[in-house]
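Could you please review the protein record set out just below?
***
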Amino acid sequence: MIRFDVSFLVKARLGASLALDIDTGPQELTDLQLNFLRGTLQAVRVQGGLLVRGTVESELGLECVRCLSPFVLPITLDVEETFRLPGTGPKPEMPYAVSNDGWIDLAPLLREQAWLAIPMKPLCSSESGCLCAHCGANRNLEPCTCEVEGIDPRLAVLKDLL
């Protein structure tokens, strides 16, 4: 859990702020494992809540979709979210809330931002080779020795049209 005591901001005047420094080691955010979290967030008292914004750097361990090798992806989490004040009802536009004892838990918000930072098809490098469909060789580590078949005989007729 990545929690901060913001109880004095709950009762503060509008515009009051607090810097939230994050510098942690490995963090498990439910279903994501981050190697570290580093950054500074600013919590500002606004009408109806606390605006938390800033940037957090981290790294995720992923698997390349082409070669299936594990790799580390550096990510930047741009955070900007308003937390509801304690005692206010849930609102669709404000899913996060300050707890009744004045603490905010940033783990769910950072988890959400980390999921959004993961590319649709994570690659270990832009030049990443793939696995051979026939022998399974990783073309990043060794050349494939499979013979490449020519054109499918059923489609050979189409070659003459070009």
User: Anything to note?
Assistant: The first helix runs from residue 7 to 10. Strands lie at 3-5, 17-24, 27-29, 32-46, 49-63, 70-84, 103-105.
